[in-house]
Amino acid sequence: MAYKIKEDCISCGACADVCPVQAISEGEAIYVIDENTCISCGACADTCPVGAPEEN
Ligand code: SF4
Ligand code: SF4
């Protein structure tokens, strides 16, 4: 199961920097995770200051 970023995202970009497979990119409103690339390592959730990435 891939991770998904909730609306709480403040677009700081920290998660994109730590994702080992570059699955995270800046979307129109918030950052988004490509569910086909995400390997569910949890690094984004560990790094996010507002707990926005959640296991889907
Ligand atoms: Fe990237 Fe891991 Fe977050 Fe998936 S769970 S988006 S692989 S950092
Ligand atoms: Fe959004 Fe959290 Fe990623 Fe920052 S680390 S861009 S707040 S999901």
Which structural traits does this protein have?
binds iron/sulfur cluster; 18% helix; alpha+beta; 2 helices; Alpha-Beta Plaits; 56 residues; two-stranded antiparallel ribbon
Structure notes:
The protein has helices at residues 14-18, 43-47, and strands at residues 3-5, 24-26, 31-33, 53-55. With 56 residues, the protein is α+β, with helices and mostly antiparallel strands. It has a single domain, classed as 2-Layer Sandwich (Alpha-Beta Plaits). The strands form two sheets. Strands 1-4 form a two-stranded antiparallel ribbon. A two-stranded antiparallel ribbon has the order 2-3. Strand 2 and strand 3 form a beta hairpin. The longest helix is centred in the first third of the chain and has 5 residues, at 14-18. The protein binds iron/sulfur cluster (2 copies). Residues 3, 18-19, 21, 23-24, 33, 38-44, 53 line the site of one iron/sulfur cluster.
CATH class type:
Alpha Beta
Q: Average pLDDT across residues?
A: 97
Instruction: Tell me which CATH architecture applies here.
Output: 2-Layer Sandwich
Largest sheet: 2 strands, antiparallel
Number of helices: 2
The separation of the N and C termini measures 6 Å
Cα-based radius of gyration, to the nearest Å? 9 Å
Low-confidence stretches: none
Estimate percent helicity. 10-25%
